[in-house]
Design goal:
Distance between the termini: 97 Å
Protein name: Putative membrane fusion protein
Keywords: Membrane, Transmembrane, Transmembrane helix
CATH class of one domain: Mainly Beta
CATH topology of one domain: conserved putative lor/sdh protein from methanococcus maripaludis s2 fold
């Protein structure tokens, strides 16, 4: 009798996962999410290492140049030969140009000393010192220059502008600003002008007038020197500087008040935070120069997150 062979059904069995292990994984995920949310929604302590620096108290603005200049016109038509270098100083009686006409040559002599320029733009009477006491917002609005630079051999018509003579001992800037800023300045206050294309340092000036309209406020400043690079310009973008403060510079927000006075939190090498009183010497609404801390100190710049000195009853 043949042998009978029996086959048993093979079943795959999955090992049941432990409920404890599932619970641990859930706890870990919750903790990670909680920590991530905490980092996103809570301020962290921010510190800076104290250094020497400077604070420039001022603003950037467009300024219109007001010169003491006089325009001279050609008495005849013809080809012009220029006798002076652009921007050079000339005295009364010096030869300025020769105009060749069909009937001969006409020599033009200078009648007043100053700097000579053969460039004109049609705004010589509008931007002139004789109007310095009558500054209006329209001075800044949509002025168009009809710029023309004469060169040797140009044909000039009778009555056409020939040259300018500029008094380089008298020059003004009219600086546009807002009402809040203009109230910080006093008549006769000394200020400084910085132009990023000038390599000879700051230009010293003096506020001679404050003009306030509903649609604009203007500071009129007399400069202590002439800027030759501005000889043929009508407006410039400048930094208008009230003061420059130098010393140990920190953010104003780093300072808070304790019973012993105003001060900052300094982080020690051991990681502790200690309060040090400081004296504000100068500064702006954002940064200040102080004494009471040393170069290299690590100062907390957002002390509100530490709640230093708070007591819970």
């Amino acid at each position: 009798m043949p042998e009978k062979i029996y086959y048993l059904d093979q079943k795959k069995y999955k090992r049941n996962k432990s409920p404890v292990r599932k619970y641990n994984k859930i706890i870990i995920v919750i903790l990670l999410l909680t920590g991530f949310i905490y980092l996103l929604t809570n301020d962290r302590i921010q510190m800076m290492e104290v250094r020497y620096g400077q604070i420039i108290d001022g603003f950037s603005s467009k300024a219109v140049i007001i010169r003491d200049e006089k325009l001279f016109f050609s008495p005849v038509s013809g080809r012009v030969i220029l006798k002076q270098q652009e921007g050079s100083r000339v005295s009364s009686g010096q030869k300025i140009a020769v105009i060749k006409t069909g009937e001969g040559e006409i020599t033009i002599f200078n009648h007043t000393s100053g700097l000579v320029s053969y460039a004109t733009d049609g705004l010589e009477n509008r931007f002139n010192v004789k109007f310095i006491d009558n500054i209006k917002p329209s001075l800044f609005n949509n002025f168009q220059r009809d710029y023309n630079q004469l060169v040797n051999g140009d044909y000039i018509n009778k009555g056409q502008p020939l040259y300018r003579i500029i008094n380089n001992s008298l020059v003004f800037l009219v600086v546009k600003t807002d009402r809040n800023e203009i109230n910080r300045y006093q008549i006769h206050e000394v200020v400084f002008i910085r132009w990023n294309k000038l390599n000879t340092g700051l230009i010293k000036g003096r506020v001679i007038d404050k003009i306030i309209y509903d649609d604009g406020s203007y500071l009129v400043v007399e400069l202590n020197r002439f800027v030759r690079e501005w000889l043929n310009m009508r407006s410039v973008q400048i930094d208008f500087i009230k003061n420059i403060y130098r010393g140990i510079v920190i953010p104003r927000d780093a300072i808070f008040t304790q019973p012993e006075g105003e001060g900052v939190l300094v982080c020690t090498p051991e990681g502790d935070f200690i309060f040090r009183t400081v004296k504000v010497l100068d500064g702006t609404s954002k940064r200040v120069v102080v004494e009471g801390i040393e170069v290299g100190d690590k100062v907390v710049i957002n002390p509100e997150v530490i709640n230093y000195g708070w007591e819970v009853e």
